Structures are given as structure tokens and as C-alpha cells.
Amino acid sequence: MSPLSELPALVLGPLEGRPEADWQRAPPGKWTPAQIVEHLALGLESSAAAFAGRRAKPPMARRPTTLRAKLGKLFVFGLGRFPPGLRAPEGATPAPRVERAAAEARFRRGLDLWDQVERELLPVRPHDLFVKHPALGDLTMGEWLRFHAIHARHHARQIRARVAG
To answer: Per residue in 12-57, pLDDT tens?
Structure first.
């Protein structure tokens, strides 16, 4: 079973059946649930597309890891948390206003892209294909899958807080 199989229920479950207004509610200066879903979708899409685009590349080697990336990996993979002050990279920052239907559709598309990558590439290229994460350095497909699961849990807590308030 994929580490991403639980994500629809985890991320979209708390929003199921809720009106558009709940998808747009957030404390000042914070993302709305729709923006959070869009942010997760952007990360899923870009990492899956990068792996798919490297399908025909020869075997790769991981580049040396910086101290910052090592500490980031310790937080994310070791503690299941994100380092304080970590900001979303520009390519994963949602628009100021994101509609529910667009965010949900994009999130599901991102999951579908990863499903395809997992089926087609993970069995044949698990250790010699890398995509750089902006804060964590080069990651394999398996590491990206773990990252996305941890990342979604992090943001699902925020979504639950937004809809509870």
C-alpha cells in the first residue's frame, strides 16, 4: 500500500460536505484550507513530474548533503516535524485565492501522478533516481513519498484547526 493512499481522507476528509466558506476561513496571515490543499497539490505535482521526466536518465548519485539539509531531514524524517521558520518554496506557494473545486481537483491529480510514478518507476529505479527538495536536498522516490505523507499530516492538523474554529 502506498504511503499516499491515506492522504485523501486525511487532507480532504475534514472538509467533506463543508461549504465553500469553510474552505476560505483562516486566521489573518495564514493560509486557508483551500490554499493548504493547493500547496500540497503543487508539491505532489512537481515532484512526480520531475521523476517522470527523469525516467530515461542514466543512474544518478546523490549529491553531498549540506548541514542544513541534514538537520532538515532529522526534523522531517526523524521527528515527523518541520524545522521552525521553514517557508514554502515559491513554486509551492498557493495563489491568494484558491477555489475549493480547483484545489481538490489539483490535489487528486497530484496523487494520480504519484500513483503512476510509483507503479512505473519505483520498482525499477528505487535507489538511483533523485529529485532535489529545496530544503532537504536530493531525495529518492521512497523518500519523497515519506516526505509527502509527513507533509500532509502536518497540514491536515492545520486544516482541522481551521474548520473547528
So the answer is: 999 999 999 999 999 999 999 999 999 999 999 999 999 999 999 9
Is residue 44 a contact partner of residue 18, using CB atoms and an 8 Å limit? no
Domain ranges of the chain: 7-58+88-127+141-164
C-alpha cell at 80: 515527523
Provide the H-helix boundaries in the chain. Answer: 7, 20-23, 33-53, 67-73, 100-120, 141-164
Provide the whole-model pTM. Answer: 0.96
Instruction: Please say whether the beta carbons of 11 and 152 come within 8 A.
Output: yes
Could you give the CA distance from residue 46 to residue 7 in angstroms, rounded to a whole number?
Answer: 17
Asked if 25 and 32 count as a contact pair (C-beta separation under 8 A), the reply is yes
Q: Scanning the structure block, which residue is given the C-alpha cell 521558520?
A: 85
C-alpha cell read off for 145: 513519498
Using the structure block, give the residue that is written with the C-alpha cell 505535482. 45
